[in-house]
Automatic annotation (TrEMBL):
It comes from Nocardioides bizhenqiangii. This is ABC transporter substrate-binding protein. The keyword Signal applies. Pfam families: Peripla_BP_4. It is found in: Cell envelope. Keywords: Signal. SUPFAM superfamilies: Periplasmic binding protein-like I. Belongs to the bacterial solute-binding protein 2 family. Its main location: other. InterPro entries: Peripla_BP_I (IPR028082), SBP_2_dom (IPR025997). Residues 26-285 form the Periplasmic binding protein domain.
Amino acid sequence: AALAGCSDSDASGDDDKIVMGFAQVGAESGWRTANTESIKASADEAGYELKFSDAQGKQENQIKAIRSFIQQKVDVIAFSPVVETGWDAVLQEAKAAGIPVILTDRAVDTEDTSLYETFLGSDFVLEGEKAGEWLVENAADADVDGDGDVNVVQLEGTTGSAPAIDRAEGFATAIAADPSIEVTASQTGDFTRDLGKQVMESFLNSEDGIDVVFAHNDDMGLGAIEAIEAAGLEPGVDVKIITIDAVHDGMEALADGKINFIVECNPLLGPQLMDLAEQVIDGEEVPERVVTEETTFTQEQAAEVLPDRQY
Ligand code: AHR
């Protein structure tokens, strides 16, 4: 590890162990919980010392955590940025300290790509496109009230985050293929179940003829299900629901017919992250971008894979 020869105030007393500082977004969703577990278990398995920080959804907490990792002279910093912008200053500090940074899950918006070594995570634009393509293919069925228009309400992820920006963009691109499909209302539910429910309640009060909900993650879709049921409607039938993630609760709702389609976003990034960290510390070349492989699930496919689903 890069700690050899450093003083007692350094991150670890064990010079052989790689010390990783990981600044997590928070615990906003089932996806995030699975992601945190994957990172902790993989660090353990790889024999790394993991310094884990939960930013509780706040960028300033993540910046503080990164600064503290720099002070502790960790070998590598990995983090999943809450939002895309505002990282250049702290990343320059890490660079000046000679500590490599790996982005996981979410990207940063910067012109200086030398501020990080690699970015491991999903293609969020593609996820949004897959959701939109399914809707285009199933538009006739999704026109629940049969008025010739498919009215979609969108539950957006955290404002300013890469997945919220990219999924909305991918979805809009795909549905442009069918002019009968229109996003009639769109608001953030911050990737949480509670807010997804609240925003859906307000959509049900303010919007006429909602045919489809597109939720940027399962948790908000699950919140929307509660709101739809409370309004005396049948989710999956009276209102079609498309979500992204494919965590256990979402897959159960899909198999039960309450969600109609899920685009997978894989949270199990731990093993690849540990490999990349080792390569970076050893000075090996790593690809600038490592894209996670993902699939999609219909209701039938969810029922089939559920018994073996890890998370
Ligand atoms: O960045 C990945 C997204 O963040 C997941 O889709 C969502 O559930 C999480 O909160």
